[in-house]
Write a structure and sequence with these properties.
- Helices cover 21% and strands 29% of the residues.
- By secondary structure, the protein is of the alpha+beta class.
- It has five domains: 368 residues, TIM Barrel; 167 residues, Glycoside hydrolase family 3 C-terminal domain (Rossmann fold); 120 residues, Trefoil (Acidic Fibroblast Growth Factor, subunit A); 114 residues, Sandwich (Immunoglobulin-like), CATH 2.60.40; 115 residues, Galactose-binding domain-like (Jelly Rolls), CATH 2.60.120.260.
- Belongs to the glycosyl hydrolase 3 family.
Length: 976
């Protein structure tokens, strides 16, 4: 909730803020050197920095950096959301006048990546950047040019609530798409930025449950080869200007004070980066995370770790200023630390043209670009190219003109936006799009129309036609007593009032009202369940999100007072209702399907309900009622096409086995209906590809908080099973053949080429995917790993030679024995095909690298650089930097292939509050014990001390296991 408030103020509120911070009419300051675009950037930044007072510098650390009248500097706001268009672009009131700001909404981010088309995504990014500039030209105080996009967190777990915001489970694909999108946002000027994109959310942020207190435990290989690898490409390509630190912890340390923000991320580019906190995260360090005792300590650590801007306390910068000043006064920070952070911000502001006399090359972009005809056309093209054809048997698709079509399902005639969408300036629903193409169209939402009658009084819940509080009043049914019940799975319903077409909401925090246009908001107060009781009645339960605070406690059930007013109470005090089905949605949909030549069933998710920020999914199933609808329609009309419109993988096993054709799309914006019709009728040959593995059941997944993809066989990289749909999968209306794969060494790279031919009768796109697999290695290797891809357009009979370059360094692994990237001597398969599971051509290459030597534990070795483990946790060595291992009874870590030369002693750096032991064993956790290290209490988890023991019987090349008992942390060890 604070995330959204922090990122957007009304125009009038923002103006008031600017004035309150001293932003009067700007004085002439054009003669200052920092205003001279001909000077080097660094010189301009230093000139302005040196003109700022210490107080002005501290004030600039907040998200709303105040205007500085004496220098003619305007307020600068970080954080305009722009994942798939400028978010929260809606009509707003400015001094009593309504300003229209609705902009182009492109497909959700996971849909953008499903195009596998970097050139297209750069065009989309450029359009979004233009619209951000257009909004900025209209109101620069509300619409800042520092954009919080794209999200590059890997989609490791498809249950993640924010799956719609990311791109892929694969770092190569994620890196390519984020680089393309970021490049478009930035523009092509070598010196200036159209906008300043910020990558979210660093690092390993792929769960919403306990998202500000859970720790993502990353062994070094997972951290370097997987999670960091998603962030590096866009930074390295100068396609992003910074990162946002995520809420979660990594190895026990909050990412808000992760030193990698400085030590690692900034090493990837020579450009200056401007890093920001997530909303409220500075205060989490003291509150929910309890990592620091005072805000001054927390803010000092945050700045020293490499963050430059505080997103906290909405528009009120006073608490941040007070805490930073306290940190300076206590010596926790230096003025140089503050200057560095401000310098980073100013560098980006200069590149945005803020201090150029003419505003820079992008200042001429006006609001006229918003929702332009060109952007509408691009949105339609992108939505069509993002769609993935999952099944097409018996020539079910494309649809033939002149047929009668039934368009049914709860998403047939609606378009939904998500938490980070803009408002749609117009809507072309699936029904609208198909009406333009079919000979005739019949439609049905396929949802039940119900009424709820109080069994004690005989009165129905009524909703006023004008919108307002619901109340028990009528004893007979009319429109005001009827509600359309939409099933979103796991018992969750939304109730749309027949009286006025609005959704029932707990909008005023006191009663229920039919006032919502769609489910939305942070708590999504339009969610309800009907809980069956043993007497045949039902209780109506409010099921809106309440986060960890559970504000309503047990008061979630609807109760009618004597006068009919409704409120929430406990289950034992709730009113019992008889659910009366006025009309069955399935019956209506079946009737329409029977009368049609083809039935198109549009099912899927509501983005504010089925997984979203702060709420993970707990299963991956299609809503029960929606699946029942699909089954009934298929039984009524064998020519059934399912359109699945949602934001994540779904377990549609029955549909895959029984329905002739299935097409998947994300929530794709205003042009969804046109794009859908383009694909269904074959004007666009589908070529979208899945960016995630679609599993057959959530039972195939480990816990959502387990981040070790290597050990737990996660994602297509390590998954050993047979998925419902594999990574990279997608069908076409034509066919392609592959011939003549070649992999030729050229310097420190391999030139890979393959011929691809369209062997069908219709033009289409093929996504040619290049994977590799290393045969032998010191460590567990991926089943296969994407190295490159191209989306190519081919006419019928046309052949193109597709060329890739694979650098030798691309094949490196993170060697935990020496803490460096290493290319091993090995044979690699080169695999080219149309998905990770459909390899069409194979070759092998013999890569000359090195053989990783036996481990040498006579040198001090970090405990976290183990080769295997069980029953331990990765934790923070100190609050500043470093990782360690926390052992528990029976837990162990292993160092494989160790060259032992009869060591006499073992020394370990340990910390403990209660003491314990570390047994050194050979061969296995139950192997021969060669040493037992006693660990005494050291005074705390950050109080490190050496612990030693004598060693006997350790010789030769062995696997060394450290087995823990008691309360023990270990940071390093040596056997000498």
């Amino acid at each position: 909730m604070s995330h959204r408030r922090s990122a957007m103020l009304s125009a009038s509120a923002a103006l008031a803020l600017a004035l309150s911070l001293g932003a009067g009419p700007a004085r002439a300051a054009d003669d200052y050197p920092f205003r001279d675009p001909s000077l080097p950037l660094a010189q301009r930044v230093d000139d302005l920095l040196n003109r700022l007072t210490p107080d002005e510098k501290v004030a600039m650390l907040h998200q709303y950096a105040p205007a500085i009248d004496r220098l003619g500097i305007k307020l600068f706001k970080t954080g305009t959301e722009a994942l798939h268009g400028v978010a929260w672009s809606t009509d707003y009131t400015d001094n009593g006048a309504v300003v229209t700001a609705k902009g182009t909404v492109f497909p959700q981010a996971v849909g953008l990546a499903s195009t596998w088309d970097t050139a297209l995504i750069k065009r989309v990014g450029s359009a979004v950047g233009d619209e951000a500039r257009g909004h900025h030209a209209e109101n620069p105080t509300v619409w800042g040019l520092n954009l919080w996009a794209p999200v590059v967190n890997l989609l490791r777990d498809p249950r993640w609530g924010r799956n719609e915001e990311g791109y892929s489970e694969d770092p190569t694909l994620t890196g390519a798409i984020s680089t393309a999108y970021g490049s478009g946002l930035e523009g092509d000027d070598p010196d200036h930025l159209k906008t300043a994109p910020t990558l979210k959310h660093y690092l390993a942020n792929n769960n919403e449950v306990t998202r500000d207190t859970s720790s993502s435990e990353l062994p070094p290989r997972v951290k370097h080869e997987y999670d960091e690898a998603a962030f590096k490409p866009a930074i390295e390509a100068d396609a992003a200007t910074g990162v946002m630190a995520s809420y979660n912890l990594v190895n026990g340390r909050p990412n808000t004070v992760n030193p990698d923000l400085d030590d690692v991320v900034r090493s990837w580019t020579k450009r200056t980066l401007f890093n920001v906190t997530d909303a409220g995260a500075p205060n989490n360090l003291v509150n929910s995370e309890k990592y620091y005792a005072t805000q001054a300590e927390a803010d000092a650590a945050l700045i020293k770790a490499g963050l430059d801007s505080f997103t906290v306390d909405d528009a009120n910068g006073a608490p941040t200023v007070a805490a930073v000043k306290e940190a300076l006064s206590k010596g926790l920070l230096t003025q140089a630390d503050v200057d560095d952070a401000v310098r980073h911000q100013l560098s980006i502001r200069f590149r945005l043209g803020e201090f150029d006399p003419d505003g820079g090359p992008y200042a001429k972009i006006t609001k006229d670009v918003i929702d332009s005809p060109a952007h509408r056309k691009l949105a339609r093209e992108t939505a069509a190219k993002a769609m993935v054809l999952l099944k097409n048997s018996g020539g079910a698709l494309p649809l033939k003109p002149g047929k009668k079509v039934a368009v049914v399902g709860p998403l047939a005639n609606v378009l939904y936006t998500d938490w980070y969408s803009g408002s749609l300036p117009y809507k072309v629903t699936p029904l609208d799009g198909l009406k333009e193409r079919a000979a005739s169209v019949a439609s049905s939402e396929g949802v039940d129309r119900i009424a709820l009658k109080d069994v004690a009084t005989g009165k129905y819940i009524s909703a006023p036609a004008s919108g307002g509080d619901l109340k028990e009043s009528a004893t007979a049914l009319g429109d005001t007593e009827q509600f359309d019940a939409f099933d979103w799975g796991q018992g969750v319903l939304t109730l749309r009032s027949v009286a006025n077409g609005k959704y029932v909401s707990r909008a005023n925090w006191a009663t229920l009202a039919n006032t919502a246009d769609q489910p939305s908001g942070w708590f999504v107060q339009e969610q309800f369940t009907l809980e069956p009781q043993s007497d045949g009645t039902s209780l109506l339960r409010y099921a809106g999100y309440e986060t960890a605070y559970d504000w309503f406690g047990q008061d979630k059930y609807v109760k009618a007072a004597a006068d009919g007013t409704l409120s929430l109470t406990t289950a034992d005090q709730a009113t019992h209702y008889a659910k009366e089905v006025v009309s069955r949605g399935v019956d209506d949909a079946v009737a329409k399907a029977k009368a049609a030549d083809v039935a198109v069933v549009v099912v899927g998710s509501m983005p504010f309900i089925n997984g979203r920020e702060d709420h993970d999914r707990t299963d991956m199933n299609l809503a029960e009622g929606q699946e029942a609808l699909v089954k009934a329609v298929k039984a009524a009309n064998p020519n059934t096409v399912v359109v699945l419109e949602n934001s994540y993988p779904t377990t549609i096993n029955w549909e895959q086995d029984n329905v002739p054709a299935i097409l998947w799309t994300t929530h794709a914006g205003a042009e969804t209906g046109h794009a859908l019709a383009d694909v269904l009728y074959g004007d666009v040959n589908p070529a979208g590809r899945l960016t995630q593995t679609w599993y057959r059941s959530a039972d195939e997944l480990p816990g959502i908080l387990d981040y070790d993809i290597v050990k737990k066989d996660r994602t297509y990289l390590y998954y050993q099973g047979k998925p419902l749909y594999p990574f990279g999968y997608g069908l076409s209306y034509t066919s392609f053949s592959y011939q003549g794969l070649k992999a030729v060494p050229k310097g420190d790279a391999y030139e890979v080429s393959v011929k691809v031919t369209n062997t069908g009768s219709r033009a289409g796109d093929e996504v040619v995917q290049l994977y590799t697999h290393q045969h032998k290695s010191r460590v567990k290797q991926p089943v296969k790993q994407l190295r490159a891809f191209q989306r190519v357009t081919l006419a019928p009979g046309q052949t193109k030679t597709i060329a890739f370059t694979v650098k030798k360094s691309d094949l490196a692994l993170w060697d935990v024995t020496r803490n460096k990237w290493t290319v091993e001597n090995a044979t690699h398969d080169v695999l080219v095909g149309s998905s990770s599971a459909n390899i069409r051509q194979r070759a092998t290459i013999n890569v000359k690298g090195e053989n990783i030597p036996h481990r040498d534990l006579s040198q001090t070795t970090r405990a976290v650089d183990f080769d295997d483990y069980s029953g331990i946790h990765l934790v923070d060595e100190t609050k500043v930097r470093g990782d360690a291992v926390a052992g528990a009874d029976g837990g162990w870590i292993a160092f494989k292939d160790v060259q032992l030369r009869k060591p006499r002693t073992v020394t370990a750096g340990v910390a403990s509050t209660g003491g314990g032991t570390i047994e050194v064993r050979l061969g296995s956790p139950t192997g021969a014990t060669v040493a037992t290290i006693p660990v005494a209490a050291t005074g705390g988890i950050y109080s490190w001390a050496p612990a030693t023991a004598s060693v006997s019987g350790a010789n030769g090349v062995k696997d060394v296991y450290l087995v823990f008992t008691g309360d023990v942390r270990i940071k390093d060890l040596a056997l000498r």
